[in-house]
């Protein structure tokens, strides 16, 4: 293992406060060994919000937008605790075991990448274990298996993407296991999502919260990334959550509160007896920023009468483009039928699909009632536990969360949600379908 570079002739934490010319003089005069040491001195590179708060606390919750630098902050906190000898047994808990390995351990900002050559841990994937030269050990766990956290004991823990954990018991078990040493602590890094069990953590006097935005880390993001996400999502409800790191409460009177959407999550779908692709065409015809999206949702029904939302292929597209996207989804999922709203296009909708593939069976539906009346029977299916969501539907779920009994509270038109309503109405609410509600006049 490479030897540790000699102690520097400067204080890395104070260099950033020096005049630019003085900084250049210091940095230019560094030896190779000092440059390597500076490269791995987190105090020099970190923003203030990425450094642990002072004082006594048990939980440091970093609640910030995507790209803020949460993962790097969590990994560097673990590294500092271990190098200082304050942590010997560490829990690394990801949403899944794959996330713990791919993000927290092996990721670009994970523990292997940020560790200096003279103190790099040994990673043993089969044991889910990192071992440092000073004897400290970190073990990876999955929040999807809360029982893994019964029994072990730790003096430090890093919980990543806490708001995505599906089982509150994983957090409870982690807190019970955090009992070694004189000052056991935990850092939790997450993009906010409304979770009822997050509120007690935020309200706990032993919790210190750091909040931040994607914008804070612009200097370290890929060129154009921030401009693109701001162009698409700034000012929207989803943007407030994913960019600005705001923990949103449910819209008053929401038809799909956060708890309902959380209960609908699943990893895989069973074999399905019917699959449809539903299309809600945009009222405009272009791809520009001001045009509405065309909603394209794929969903199916199993033989027990449960619906499964499989994919969201929505976007701002011309008629030719959304026609191709809808037919591509039809073929990919081996769907039985394509459902499309005719209001904005009349016969044009069927013509667009037929132009791409005349063999695709199409049912045209007419919105003879308002969005709220059409949405309420579908929301009831969720309340009955009869709809499940596969991963990757966050944009659709953001529109659902913003829809209340007073109407849509988000920006623009909820075209993804409209397509979902058509899909689930066909699968679950058609007149004559066993267990369905009547939707007479909705088609």
From TrEMBL:
Superkingdom per UniProt: Bacteria
Protein transport listed as a keyword: no
Domain Terminase large subunit gp17-like C-terminal: 278-425
Keyword RNA-binding: no
InterPro entries: P-loop_NTPase (IPR027417), Terminase_6C (IPR035421)
Alphabetical UniProt keywords: Viral release from host cell
Protein name, UniProt field: Terminase large subunit gp17-like C-terminal domain-containing protein
């Amino acid at each position: 293992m490479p030897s540790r570079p000699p102690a520097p002739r400067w204080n890395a934490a104070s260099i950033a406060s020096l005049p630019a010319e003085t900084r250049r003089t210091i940095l230019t005069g560094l030896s190779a060994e000092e440059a390597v040491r500076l490269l791995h001195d987190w105090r020099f590179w970190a923003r203030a919000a990425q450094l642990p708060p002072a004082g006594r606390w048990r939980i440091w919750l970093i609640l910030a937008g995507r790209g803020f630098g949460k993962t790097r902050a969590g990994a560097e906190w673990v590294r500092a605790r271990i190098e200082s000898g304050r942590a010997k047994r560490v829990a690394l808990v990801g949403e899944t075991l794959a996330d713990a390995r791919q993000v927290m351990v092996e990721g670009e900002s994970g523990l292997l990448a940020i560790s200096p050559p003279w103190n790099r841990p040994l990673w043993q994937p089969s044991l889910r274990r990192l071992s440092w030269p000073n004897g400290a050990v970190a073990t990876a766990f999955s929040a999807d298996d809360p029982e893994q956290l019964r029994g072990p004991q730790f003096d430090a823990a890093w919980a990543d993407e806490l708001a995505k954990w599906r089982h509150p018991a994983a957090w409870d078990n982690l807190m019970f296991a955090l009992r070694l040493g004189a000052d056991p602590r935990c850092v939790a890094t997450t993009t906010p999502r409304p979770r009822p069990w997050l509120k007690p953590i935020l309200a706990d006097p032993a919790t210190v919260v750091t909040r931040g935005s994607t914008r804070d880390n612009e200097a370290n993001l890929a060129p154009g990334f921030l401009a693109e996400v701001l162009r698409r999502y700034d000012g929207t409800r989803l943007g407030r959550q994913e960019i600005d790191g705001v923990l949103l409460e449910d819209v008053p009177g929401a038809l799909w509160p956060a708890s309902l959407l959380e209960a609908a999550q699943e990893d895989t779908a069973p074999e399905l007896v019917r699959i449809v692709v539903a299309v809600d065409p945009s009222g405009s015809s272009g791809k520009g920023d001001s045009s509405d999206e065309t909603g394209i949702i794929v969903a199916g029904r199993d033989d027990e009468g449960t619906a499964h939302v499989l994919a969201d292929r929505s976007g701002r597209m011309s008629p030719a483009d959304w026609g191709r996207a809808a037919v591509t989804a039809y073929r990919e999922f081996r769907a039985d039928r394509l459902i499309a709203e005719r209001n904005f296009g009349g016969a044009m909708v069927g013509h667009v699909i037929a132009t791409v593939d005349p063999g695709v069976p199409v049912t045209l539906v007419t919105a003879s009632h308002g969005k709220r009346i059409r949405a309420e029977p579908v929301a009831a299916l969720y309340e009955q536990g009869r709809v499940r969501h596969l991963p990757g539907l966050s944009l659709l779920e953001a529109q659902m969360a913003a829809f209340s009994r007073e109407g849509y509270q988000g920006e623009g038109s909820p075209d993804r949600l409209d397509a979902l309503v058509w899909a689930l109405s066909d699968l679950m609410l058609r007149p004559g379908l066993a267990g369905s509600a009547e939707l007479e006049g909705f088609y």
